[in-house]
User: What shape does this take?
Amino acid sequence: MSPTETEQIRSFWTDLGLPGLFDVHTHFMPKNVMDKVWTYFDSAGPLTGMAWPITYREDEDTRIEIMREFGVRGFTSMIYPHKPGMAEWLNSWGTQFAQRVPDCVHTATFYPEEGATQYVESAVASGARIFKSHIQVGNYPPNDPLLDGVWGIIEDAAIPVVIHCGSGPASGAHTGPESIATLLQRFPRLPLIIAHMGMPEYLQFLEMALQYPNVRLDTTMAFTDFSEASWPFPKSGRSKLIDLQGRILFGSDFPNIPYPYLDALTAVARLDLGDEWVSDVCYRNGASLFL
Assistant: This one.
């Protein structure tokens, strides 16, 4: 991080008359888990043959300070399990992290396993305000019967779930819009936040958001040069972006992004949908949910 980058990011939101930024999709995890994530990106990563350098490979306290220097008023600790027996431990860590870092929205997660309903219920009782579900990494179907109680609790509590369910940047056995359409038919009040704008099935997920008023999307990695090279956002979707102005949230994937944080902001701005649209996406929509 350079002083110039910080100055440019702060100018971005001050020029819009905003008090800062809200980033709904950032990763803070236990060190041993983050180390394994970085090793994954260093070795092969989700994209065979494509480099994925970690731009903000810093210790935890430094990464928190970077967020604050950028002017990010609220962010998340997107934690997610890849096997049984992991989610409850991650939730305990997430609770402690949120207590230590008050500008982080208390984040929790889950996995289809015996006891999931009980530990999700405990997470809600302990103050969790957002959940993370990673269909591709977890390699599980969102309609697994072991998650029925989980979705019911989350729906009733109206706690948003950032769900990585699109087939990009890497597909999985259970990614894609079909299973999410089924999930929403079963739990139509679920407050899902579709990560990465549903990349690359952008249009299908935008249509879901238009159909279900509690469905939102986050901009994580979408619209950037990195993503546009392989998964371009279709021009036919621009009108839907306008229709959903109040339900699109800025997300960055910090620190695990292969480009500067500023790129994620300028990618949103260059859609040329107007300052009010950019202001809602980059701050107001997230702040209205969580601040």
